[in-house]
Amino acid sequence: MIPPARRLKPSDKPKSLTTDCHAPRGHTLEHRPMAIEVRIPTILRTYTGGAKSVEGAGSTLAELLGDLDSRHQGLRERLVDDAGLRRFVNVYLNDEDVRFLGGLETPVTDGDTVTVLPAVAGGSR
């Protein structure tokens, strides 16, 4: 038992932290909004410092790519040209091809997963 003089009163707890029911007893976590996870293919990881996935924010895919480019310079130009998404890049929002969802204007929200995949072409005749 903790002596009465050492017990914290509710007013002693930091205001910016709240107790999380999934945190171990006595631990507090700061609640932050979830970000959008973007999975990066191996060929583009030079732009992300080798990271397999990065987090970003935005309300549309275009805004998300702009946000990513602010931290990972050059990434957006590898995915987008004047006409929209580059022809040989496939982008999926939660496993749905964004070309069928609205392209760069596809809405994205916190907790979504965006996967970037280079298109594969070729084969034998």
Structural class: alpha+beta
Query: What is the architecture of the domain at 36-118 at the second tier of CATH?
Result: Roll
Low-confidence stretches: 13-21, 27-32
Question: Largest sheet, if any?
Answer: 5 strands, mixed
CATH C-level class of the domain at 36-118: Alpha Beta
CATH superfamily of the domain at 36-118: Beta-grasp domain
Strands in their spatial order, largest beta sheet: 4-3-9-7-8
Range of helix content? 10-25%
Number of alpha- plus pi-helical segments: 2
CATH fold category name of the domain at 36-118 = Ubiquitin-like (UB roll)
In terms of DSSP E residues, the strand content is: 15-25%
Write a short abstract of this structure.
The chain has 125 residues and is α+β, with helices and mostly antiparallel strands.
Keywords:
125 residues, alpha+beta, five-stranded mixed β-sheet
Can you characterise this structure?
It is a single chain. This protein is α+β, with helices and mostly antiparallel strands. It has a domain at 36-118: Ubiquitin-like (UB roll), CATH 3.10.20.30. Helices cover 13% and strands 23% of the residues. The chain has helices spanning 61-71, 75-79, and strands at residues 18-19, 28-29, 36-39, 53-56, 80-81, 84-85, 89-93, 96-97, 113-118. It has a 5-stranded mixed sheet with strand order 4-3-9-7-8, covered by helices on one side. A hairpin with a 2-residue loop joins strand 7 (89-93) and strand 8. Mean pLDDT is 80; it is low at 13-21 and 27-32.
Layout of strands and helices, then pairs:
Blueprint: E1 18-19, E2 28-29, E3 36-39, E4 53-56, H1 61-71, H2 75-79, E5 80-81, E6 84-85, E7 89-93, E8 96-97, E9 113-118
Parallel strand pairs: 3-9
Antiparallel strand pairs: 1-2, 3-4, 5-6, 7-8, 7-9
